Amino acid sequence: MEASGAEIITVAIRRVNIGQQGPENNLLDVLPPERYTLLPNTAGCYSAEEAVRTCRLARELLDGHNLVKLEVLGDPETLYPHVTETLKAAEILVREGFDVMVYTSDDPIVARQLEEIGCAAIMPLGSLIGSGLGLVNPYNIQLILANARVPVLVDAGVGTASDACFAMELGITGVLMNTAVAKAQKPVVMASAMRYAIEAGRLAFLAGRMPRQQSAQPSSPSLGIVGS
Description:
Layout: E1 8-12, E2 37-41, H1 48-61, E3 67-70, H2 83-95, E4 99-104, H3 108-117, E5 121-124, H4 138-147, E6 153-155, H5 161-169, E7 174-176, H6 179-182, H7 187-207
Parallel strand pairs: 1-2, 3-4, 4-5, 6-7
Helix pairs in contact: 1-2, 2-3, 3-4, 5-7
């Protein structure tokens, strides 16, 4: 975490202890809320009902913490988002005062619906969770970005630093990642690489990319060439 420079840490409520399993091996002892912004998530939920119940538990455990990551999966094979259940859960959570950052498909229409419901951030997948395939459909991400009025983050699929850099060059707000670092041969080194990639990609976006050309364009002036 320190090497990555991460400011927000997402926590799977159904898989790690933040107090619901007693005081022993509490994640909050090593990732204190006063240092990091915690983002409880609903990983492992396959219905709106499960996801909403998990978010309510997180708010209770974290003394009224309203920021959550909504994730409703379609099946255990692809871990692809279940869009209809996600929309249903988002409506309930927003109505109950949660600040919902939502994992979704890269469908720009669904992204717009989630924003209209009141989600605080839209997080389309770059590719399947844990696949490391990078952004398989950057054009859809750009369509989402073009119409979004809330932050857009890439969630899932990043495999290496160049994937993260490319995502940031599109203009997204941030990248959520786990497996790319956790399964690297040297996780701490990869975390550092991700930090630099995020910074470089953001700077490149702010700088503005040169236009692509179909022919060579000389970078030096033609004046003063010998023989001309």
